[in-house]
Design brief:
It catalyses: tRNA(Lys) + L-lysine + ATP = L-lysyl-tRNA(Lys) + AMP + diphosphate. It is found in: Cytoplasm. By secondary structure, the chain is mostly helical. Among the domains are: about 220 residues, 3-Layer(aba) Sandwich (Rossmann fold); about 90 residues, Arc Repressor Mutant, subunit A, CATH 1.10.10. It has 24 helices and twelve strands. The strands form five sheets. Strands 1-2-3 form a three-stranded parallel β-sheet. Strands 5-6-7 form a three-stranded antiparallel β-sheet, with no helix packed on it. It has a two-stranded antiparallel ribbon with strand order 4-8.
């Protein structure tokens, strides 16, 4: 596949990253003026630690970035695009987070910019924001994202935003005309686009502000002690209200693309109007739906009903998280541990399928986009396309489930030797990571509730027939031969199964303690014929001695 072939296919693809990237082609039909790179941005509030929401926004933006590069025939190293991870660390601390130490110390700094508050963790950082910014960079680096970190407080303090701030002061009344109609009467009385920093307390003030001299950056306001103060709004002596700040950032940095959650829809509308007043242009982007918990309720950090990225990576993989996040961003997704196993296996199925697909199908394949996100390029191909796992995650979970809560890595790999030729963890690093994940998932979610039921009389008869058939086959019989044996037993009318599905469900519930499971032939080959016959004997014993 040539790059030109990829460009032509990408320009007609219906995959959402390409549809989003098309907006940028329309924005700049002849490229960005002056040959400047197209700028993608994601925002982050450093009052808390990065989480799955942070991951999904950077990942999805990266996918659009790579799709745009494909549309114009560029490579990451060509410098045609940039991704900025922007930290809003000039914000004033509104309340003390519940999950930090030294909360009493932080309480004495309410209202001050996050970048001017001591680090409560005592980790040697210059401020609370510096600590959380370092965590953000560590977080993004962990996943190999290609980005540039930008700190709001640094830009305010070193004067990089001063020209844009002067423009805000020049347009102060026009911005008020946009914002005041959207506010409650009480809020209107104190609202100002500019939030000065108190010279007496260092707090970010929510007070009316008069623009004295826009060109010099001078403003007048009443300080917390009641005194009227005239001071510069430049050089870190003020910040902007959220919606004005967002618009100013777009204007100052020249942002071309930024996505955001549905909860910021109104902010996006107002900021879009403000950036136009400033003389800039609202970025392209999409509004994505938010995550829900397993009950379909909105995830709340204060409720603790979400799923952390550490939890996902304990029970799954980074690629599976990306795969789960990939489909239609405009649809809400339930986020809980129960979705992880299927996401893992679906990712690998889609990844294996790439090599067999036509180009138009590849461009709609989530794994194709994920492999290109941070993996570089091999011509126009996605690196790693067509690879597969020798054992599915679902099969691993079933194996670990029958081994019990005390199962070990060594045990699992010894059983894997029944199924793959070279059961060496070093040769199968992805599978080895999933072995650890399966052990953790079984320990925390399967083993505590696992219960194998006693078979009915008809099921017991079918299990006896299966046991006799297994006694007759070779110990190294292939999975397909074993699957055929199971299949033929289930079709026998004497056992009374209305469908093969009922027979397989009986096998899962009596042998594995689950209502669903893997291809039975594959499980028998993996677990071993002798051990499978032992499971059958245990099930038949339960039938004879019901609890």
């Amino acid at each position: 596949m040539t790059e030109q072939t990829l460009i032509e296919a990408a320009r007609v693809s219906k995959a959402w990253p390409f549809q989003e990237a098309q907006k940028l082609l329309k924005r700049y039909p002849d490229g960005k003026p002056g040959g400047e790179p197209v700028l993608f941005e994601t925002g982050y509030g450093p009052s808390g630690l990065p989480h799955i929401g942070t991951f999904q926004e950077v990942l999805r933006t990266t996918l659009v970035r790579r799709a745009y590069e494909a549309l114009i025939g560029a490579r990451p190293e060509d410098g045609k695009t940039r991704l900025v991870a922007f930290s809003d660390d000039m914000d004033g601390l509104r309340k003390v987070p519940d999950n930090v130490p030294n909360r009493e110390m932080l309480a004495g700094h309410i209202g001050k910019p996050l970048s001017r508050i001591p680090d409560p963790f005592g980790a040697g950082f210059a401020s609370f924001a510096h600590h959380n910014n370092a965590r953000l960079r560590e977080f993004l680096d962990r996943f190999g994202f290609d980005y540039e970190f930008v700190s709001a407080s640094q830009r305010y303090d070193d004067g990089a935003f001063d020209d844009a701030l002067r423009q805000v002061l020049r347009c102060n009344q026009a911005i008020l005309d946009i914002m005041l109609p959207t506010l409650r009467e009480e809020r209107r009385r104190t609202y100002s686009p500019v939030l000065p920093v108190s010279p007496s307390t260092g707090a970010v003030l929510q007070v009316p502000v008069e623009v004295v001299d826009a060109e010099a950056g001078i403003v007048r306001f009443e300080d917390e002690d009641g005194k009227t103060v005239e001071q510069s709004a430049l050089g870190g002596m003020a910040k902007l209200q959220w919606k004005v700040d967002w618009a100013m950032r777009w204007y100052a940095l020249g942002v071309d693309y930024e996505m955001y959650g549905k909860d910021l829809t109104d902010s996006g509308i107002q900021s879009g109007k403000i950036v136009k007043v400033l003389g800039g242009r609202k970025p392209e982007g999409l509004i994505y739906e938010l995550f829900l918990d397993e009950k379909g309720e909105k995830i709340s950090k204060s409720k603790g009903n979400g799923l952390t990225i550490e939890e996902w990576l304990t029970y799954g993989s980074e690629e599976s998280l990306g795969f789960y996040i990939f489909p239609n961003p405009k649809s809400a997704k339930q986020l809980h541990v129960g979705v992880i196993p299927r996401a893992v296996d679906d990712y690998w199925q889609f990844r294996q399928r790439i090599a067999e697909q036509s180009l138009d199908k590849q461009l709609g394949n989530p794994a194709w986009h994920l492999l290109r996100a941070n993996g570089g390029f091999d011509g126009a191909e996605a690196p790693g396309a067509g690879e597969s796992l020798p054992v599915t995650y679902g099969l691993l979970l079933n194996l670990v489930g029958v081994l019990g809560a005390g199962a070990t890595r060594e045990q699992v790999w010894s059983y894997l030797g029944n199924y793959i030729d070279d059961p060496d963890p070093a040769r199968h690093p992805e599978l080895d990571r999933l072995v650890d994940a399966a052990l953790a998932y079984n320990r925390d979610f399967i083993a505590p509730t696992l219960e194998r039921r006693a078979p009915t009389a008809e099921e017991a008869a079918a299990l006896k027939t299966l046991d006799m058939a297994l006694e007759m086959v070779a110990a190294d019989a292939p999975a397909e031969e074993l699957q055929t044996i199971v299949y033929e037993i289930g079709k026998q009318e004497e056992f009374g199964f209305e469908s093969l599905r009922d027979w397989f469900r009986a096998l899962y519930e009596t042998l594995l303690g689950s209502s669903q499971g893997p291809r039975v032939g594959s499980f028998i080959a993996l677990y071993g014929i002798a051990d499978t016959r032992r499971l059958i004997a245990e099930a038949l014993a339960r039938a004879r001695s019901p609890a």
